[in-house]
Each structure stands twice: as C-alpha cells, then as structure tokens.
C-alpha cells in the first residue's frame, strides 16, 4: 500500500508537469471576461503566454496540485475500491458510477483549497515576463501565502474553502463518469476484456478517453468554479450569482470556454502518468523477485507455491490510469 502510494505520487507529479500548461491555458480562458478579453482562443493564449511570460508562465501555481495529487489519488482510489466491496456486483456500471461519485465527493474537500490556490496563482501577473513579475508587486508570493491571506480575509468557509460547492458539483459527476468510462473502454478494446491484457498504447488512449468523458459531463461547473475562485470576494455574492452574471453577460458559450485545452490536457497527463507508474511497479516487482530468489529457501518457496496454486487463482495486478486535477 505504501509503495503504491509512493509510485502514484511520482507518477502523479510527472503527469501534472506534462499536462499543466494546458490547465493554465484553460483557466486563463475561463476567467477572462468580454470587457477584459486578452486571448482570442486557445492557440492565441498559448502563444501570448510563451512570448510574454516564457515557459515558466505555464507553470504558475503548479506546486499546489503537484503535491496534492498524491493525496487526492490515494483518497479517490482507496474509497472507490473499499466502497465497491459493499455491492453484490462490484464490477457493474451502476456500482462503478455510485462508488466513483462517493470518491469524488470525499476528495473534493481536499481538492477545493488546492484548486483555489492553483487558480489564483495562475491568473496572477498575466502578461508579465519573469523579471518584471519578480520586481512587480503581486498579491500572493506562493501557495502558503495565498492560503494564509485567504484565511485572514474571509476565514475557512468563505476564504480557504471558497468554491467548495462547485468543486462538489464538478467532481461528483466527473468521477461518476470516469470509472464506468474506463471499464467500458477496457471491456470493448481488450482482447480478453481484462485490464491487464491491454497493450500499453491502448492504455494511454484509454486514459485520454476516460479523462475526456469525465470532463465533458462536469465542465460547466469547472468554469463557474474557476471564475468564482479567481475573482475578488466582492465581485460575486455566491456561485449562483457568478453563474447568472456570466450567462447574462456572455451567453451560454461561457460554460464551454477553455474546453479544448482541457481535453488536450487529458492526453499528456495520462500518457505520462500511466507509463511512469507501470515502470516503477515493474522495476520494484522484478527486484523483489530477485531478492526472493536469493534470500528465501527455495524448497519452502516451492511448497508454498504449490499450495497456493492448488487452492487459489491469482489474478495479475491491474493498474488504472490516474486522473489528475
């Protein structure tokens, strides 16, 4: 369990680094308004960030989700696996939907302040180069400073946990769709219907597919969450006020803004997360087997292996691509 958590942490960090530029573009497009429109689209946003802020502009606020993803992944998959044990048919689509929703709801409590910090740091210093940003006066010095100032101004409920309701509204349907989508992909594409028999490249495609499915059902809530968390406290009275004002001033299209970079983000995030996790797990398992061969009495091992094979059938371990925030 501890090793899986460590492997998940390393893989999650790698996946976050790979997909984070797309997330920054997504948040920038989500939070801009018609009265203060800086980017005409996803490509324009990419180009302007690269020119004006260098490659480091894509990674503002990354430390918060990078280290939080390990905790979140551990919570999501632990709760989902445990809750499946309460159902008579743990592999049914209904069970995967319900347990995914439960896991998404629980992890939202930790995810919400991480998202708050990430969003506010991503929209800070827009258009400023590295040197200008360092010399200018900006509101937050880093993740901890952002949390401290949010707490000092509005406390826990309205400060640190600002946008929690929208995080619930986003993550509950998102994870309710994520696990059934992965099961559908595996059962459809795998030659045996088993996750362990998927080729590596198909696992990467499956990770992107499940990520896109999860974001599609929850994306409008993510737009409102980002706008509400990024805005100053006096701009919106509540998330409902944010949704109404956004719709009245910018139309229904506002709820799809930034969807393209969001879906593109799912590809590199899962493409890097899964191989790193699988490589670490295979390497450790190989080393463990070599240690067993050198350090354990082979007669005893053979007897134990015979007993095990005569009583139980051991299935190969499965690895599910991790959905990063």
UniProtKB/TrEMBL annotation:
Membrane topology of the entry: Multi-pass membrane protein
Main subcellular location of this protein, as a coarse class: mitochondrion
Record localization: Mitochondrion membrane
Any one GO molecular-function label of the UniProt entry: high-affinity L-arginine transmembrane transporter activity
Name of the molecule in the record: Uncharacterized protein
Keywords attached to this entry: Membrane, Mitochondrion, Repeat, Transmembrane, Transmembrane helix, Transport
Solcar repeat intervals: 6-86, 91-188, 198-283
GO biological process, one term: mitochondrial L-ornithine transmembrane transport
Family note: Belongs to the mitochondrial carrier (TC 2.A.29) family.
Residues in coiled coil: none
GO cellular component labels: mitochondrial membrane
């Amino acid at each position: 369990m501890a090793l899986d958590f460590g492997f998940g942490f390393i893989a999650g960090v790698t996946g976050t680094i790979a997909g984070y530029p797309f997330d920054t573009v997504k948040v920038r497009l989500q939070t801009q308004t018609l009265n203060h429109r800086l980017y005409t689209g996803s490509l324009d946003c990419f180009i302007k960030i690269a020119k004006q802020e260098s490659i480091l502009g894509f990674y503002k606020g990354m430390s918060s989700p990078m280290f939080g993803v390990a905790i979140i992944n551990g919570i999501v998959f632990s709760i989902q696996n445990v809750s499946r044990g309460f159902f008579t048919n743990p592999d049914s689509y209904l069970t995967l939907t319900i347990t995914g929703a439960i896991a998404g709801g629980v992890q939202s409590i930790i995810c919400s302040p991480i998202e708050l910090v990430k969003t506010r740091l991503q929209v800070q210093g827009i258009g400023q180069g590295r040197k200008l940003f360092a010399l200018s006066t900006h509101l937050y010095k880093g993740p901890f400073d952002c949390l401290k100032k949010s707490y000092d101004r509005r406390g826990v409920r309205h400060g640190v946990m600002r946008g929690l309701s929208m995080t619930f509204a986003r993550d509950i349907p998102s994870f309710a769709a994520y696990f059934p989508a992965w099961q559908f992909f595996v059962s459809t594409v795998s030659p045996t219907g088993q996750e362990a028999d998927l080729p590596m490249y198909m696992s990467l495609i499956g990770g992107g597919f499940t990520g896109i499915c999860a974001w599609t059902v929850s994306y409008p809530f993510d737009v409102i969450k980002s706008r509400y968390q990024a805005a100053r406290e006096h701009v919106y009275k509540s998330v409902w006020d944010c949704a109404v004002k956004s719709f009245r001033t910018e139309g229904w299209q506002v709820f799809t803004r930034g969807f393209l970079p969001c879906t593109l983000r799912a590809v590199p995030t899962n493409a890097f997360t899964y191989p790193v996790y699988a490589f670490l797990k295979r390497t450790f398992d190989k080393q463990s087997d070599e240690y067993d061969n050198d350090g354990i009495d082979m007669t005893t091992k053979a007897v134990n292996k015979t007993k095990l094979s005569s009583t139980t059938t051991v299935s190969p371990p499965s690895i599910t691509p991790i959905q990063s925030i």
